[in-house]
Amino acid sequence: MAKSNGLFGFSFGTAVPAPTPAPVLFTMGRKEEPEGGTEEKDPVVSLNDTLGSKEVPSALNDKKETNKAFSFPRLSPGLESPWRVLKWTEEQRTTLMKNISSYKPSCTEAARVLLLGPVGSGKSSFISSVQSVFNGRVTNRAMVGSFSISFTKKLQFYKIRSLRGQQPDGLVLCDTMGLGDSAMTGPTLHDVLSVIQGHVPEGHVFSPVQPVNLSQTLGYRKRPSLEEKIHCVAFVLDAVKMSSYHGSLSSSFQQLREHISELGIHQVALLTHVDLVCPETAQDVTNVYKSRVVQAAINRAAALLGMSSSYIVPVKNYSSELDVDDNTDVLLLNAVDHILQYADLYFLDNSPPPDCETP
Questions:
Q1: Architecture, CATH, for domain 90-349
Q2: Where are the domains of the chain?
């Protein structure tokens, strides 16, 4: 039996589209309504609201200081021993590349991973950086912007290819519109869950005033196959902005995670731009797991998302570089390997699914 959630105008487990009422939109912690008012029945809720009245966890802020911005403590530059162990060798780089290149899910051609995060968190840059590792030079496969609004407007799928001219590997990274910070930016919760369930076709342009639905979304999939669904969600957060993310964003992320979990999707997180918060890591990326500042940022991200820090890995995306670097490659490849481990859990949890067909 489908589990209905009237707050979002969406029924989990069904392909019945939501009505199209005047949307209630989020502005990173404050709710705004379109001019003329809204109907109380089945509002469409954007991801940038508080999504309810949950208290921000004490790990983020105590109740008296809910909106107080987080700031990194003044810490000594680094630890003598790393708080996580990662081999920074050419052998490790080669091993990770082989593992990712040879990866094939058990009952579909590729694992689809949806990247979700605020505007400017580095989702598109991560996709381009991963492809750059396999190309052997820095390329911007996913177009990247530097604006305060999302540069990515539509749902795009990127099949990662280990070698030029060869068939793509068993990984598809899915890029979508960033979670916005104004009344008319960012996808709705309904749209994100529709993407995860496989209803939304590639190329769909998101609109906060036109939710995904059967009658008006071109190419809407009423009964998506296993291959068309999302198999893992990777949240992407910017280490530089950890001090400015509003405390109420925690409730948004955590309630979003609850709905994603109800769909049986495992979630991980990437912390980008760690080189910009730690000079030692910027100088030498192998210092990342000796950095107290990066460790504090990951703990902060864990509290914000409501997940264990073991689900979160730091990454350094390629930005101004023209050539790839072995150690940066290792950090990026380790993140991809981390994601694939949780994508595999989806297939394990759903094995053998009724629609499973071996390629």
A1: 3-Layer(aba) Sandwich (3.40)
A2: 90-349
- Taking the CB of residue 293, how many other CB atoms lie within 10 A of it? 22
SS3 15: coil
Distance of CA 196 to the CA centre of its chain: 12
Per-residue pLDDT tens digits for 201-257: 988 888 877 888 888 888 899 999 999 999 999 999 999 999 888 777 888 898 899
Q: Counting beta carbons within 10 angstroms of the beta carbon of residue 37, is it exposed (0 to 12), middle (13 to 18) or buried (19 or more)?
A: exposed
SS3 content of the chain, % helix, strand, coil (to 5): 35, 15, 55
Query: Which of 346, 338, 345, 350 has the alpha carbon at shortest distance from 99?
Result: 338
Radius of gyration of the chain (CA): 20
DSSP-derived letter for residue 215 is: T
Q: How far apart are CA 130 and CA 340, in angstroms?
A: 13
What is the total residue count of the chain? 359
Does 188 have pLDDT greater than 80?
yes
Residue 333: in which H helix or E strand, if any? helix 326-349
Report the distance separating Cα 206 and Cα 199, nearest Å: 13
- Confidence (pTM): 0.77
